[in-house]
Design brief:
With 96 residues, the protein is mostly helical. The chain is 62% helix and 11% strand. It has one domain (2-95). The chain contains six helices and three strands; from the N terminus they run E-H-H-E-H-H-H-E-H. The longest helix is centred in the last third of the chain and has 19 residues, at 77-95. The N and C termini lie far apart (35 Å).
């Protein structure tokens, strides 16, 4: 199943929004082994949202495993870049 962000969240700004997405992502990874998250139509996300939605995954699996299990599609370049940068920065700090 593809998680269409606009279908599940009213916004992508708060920690609570991020936690709601994380719940969906966790369920998909647990049930199907991979989560497909579609950001089509989303024009803005905050760092707080990205931190809450994706960084907790690094507490449960390696960065390489997250890259294999989390597929982000339909995101504007700046959104995709923010997700990649936050994940990579956090993974490098955890590994150090």
């Amino acid at each position: 199943m593809v998680i269409h962000v606009k279908d599940h969240l009213s916004g992508c700004a708060t920690n609570e929004d991020g936690e709601a997405l994380l719940t969906l992502v966790d369920r998909e990874i647990r049930d199907r082994g991979v989560a497909h998250v579609d950001f089509h139509g989303v024009i803005y996300v905050t760092t707080s949202f990205v931190n809450s939605a994706f960084l907790p995954l690094l507490d449960r699996m390696s960065f390489d495993e997250v890259k294999g299990r989390l597929k982000v599609t339909g995101a504007l370049p700046q959104i995709a870049d923010m997700v990649r940068r936050r994940m990579a920065d956090t993974a490098s700090r955890v590994a150090a």
